[in-house]
Each structure stands twice: as structure tokens, then as C-alpha cells.
Design a protein that fits this description.
Layout (H helix, E strand, L loop, with lengths): L1 E5 L7 H9 L3 E6 L7 H18 L2 E4 L5 H8 L6 H19 L4 E4 L9 H15 L2 E2 L8 H10 L11 H8 L5
Parallel strand pairs: 1-2, 1-4, 2-3, 4-5
Helix pairs in contact: 4-5
Length: 178
């Protein structure tokens, strides 16, 4: 099976890539950038992922441009549901790219994180699959959470302290004075 794997970052790619390759899946990565803020954080994540991809001989497609404004416009006044928009945007973009590249299926490393809304990602992936006609490969990669962390630390990889968007950055660092 030829799979396009949305990759949010290098550390989150480690375990899913091991599992998928162990199943005989031919994996190519795709890095989507628009939601990551600030730009320096986006570049740092991208460079870490590129280095890991080189080490693992993983083909990698990197989204062109940086449409932060589009992401902010789409999430403005919907900050509480921003993750749903973000999941949909990344999964739909990945599926459409997979369709254009004649991949058999698409998936995402978001299914590795204990901090993401796993069931919503699964449901969104299935919906995008129905919409685009490209199969969504579902795997619950969370069981390898610690293994991925340990290996990323052994490799000296940059490990980001928040999901990526400006809102998650605020949630991570700003503590209200309640």
C-alpha cells in the first residue's frame, strides 16, 4: 500500500512510521505549515522533520507558502472549535494531495498524540475519505507514545512544547490571574 502520511512534526512521526513500515506500507510524509505560529517555530519543526526524514529515507512533501492569515480568518470567532477546523484542513489537504499523487490511502501522525482529540480525528478522516474517494488508514498510535518520546530524546530532536497554533501557544504559556 502506498500511503501519504500527514506529519505534524519529527518526534510524532517516529512511532507511526515504524509501525506502518513494519506492516509493509510504503510511506511518504507530508508537512502542512499554515497552522504553526510563530513562523520561527514552523521552520524549526520543519527542519527537524526534514533531518529525520533524511535519516529514515522517508520521502517528504512540504507545503509551499505560509498562509497564517487564512488559518486565523478561518478560526476567528471559533477559537473554541479551532481544532476541528485544523484537523479538517490538514486531513483534506493531505487526502487531495494523495489523490493527485495516486496514493492508495492517507493518514496522520495526529493519531499518535495523547493530547489530540483522537475520536474527532478518526471521524474527520473517515468523512474526508468519503468526500475525496481516498481511503483513510486509521491506526491508534498512542500506545507508542513513550517509545516515540524516548527515541526523539535519544536523537536530540527538537521537541515542541505546544500543538502549534497561536491559540495553543497562549494556552501553554499564559496563565490567567483568576
Amino acid at each position: 500500500m502506498k500511503l501519504l502520511l500527514h506529519t505534524c512534526c519529527g518526534p510524532c512521526t517516529i512511532y507511526p512510521l515504524q509501525i506502518l513500515r513494519g506492516e509493509g506500507v510504503d510511506v511518504m510524509g507530508y508537512f502542512h505549515r499554515n497552522n504553526i505560529h510563530p513562523y520561527q517555530e514552523c521552520i524549526r519543526r520543519e527542519e527537524t522533520l526534514k533531518e529525520y526524514a533524511r535519516d529514515m529515507e522517508l520521502g517528504l512533501i512540504v507545503q509551499k507558502g505560509y498562509d497564517l492569515e487564512g488559518f486565523l480568518q478561518a478560526t476567528a470567532f471559533r477559537e473554541g472549535n479551532r481544532c476541528l477546523y485544523c484537523y479538517h484542513d490538514r486531513l483534506l489537504t493531505t487526502a487531495l494531495l494523495a489523490k493527485r499523487g495516486r496514493f492508495d490511502a492517507f493518514s496522520t501522525t495526529l493519531l499518535y498524540s495523547r493530547f489530540q482529540k483522537h475520536e474527532q480525528i478518526k471521524t474527520m478522516g473517515e468523512s474526508v475519505s468519503a468526500q475525496t474517494g481516498v481511503d483513510f488508514l486509521y491506526r491508534d498510535f498512542r500506545e507508542g507514545w513513550q517509545q516515540g518520546i524516548d527515541e526523539s530524546k535519544q536523537r536530540g530532536m527538537y521537541r515542541q512544547p505546544y500543538c502549534g497554533c497561536i491559540y495553543s501557544e497562549k494556552d501553554r504559556y499564559y496563565k490567567s490571574e483568576k
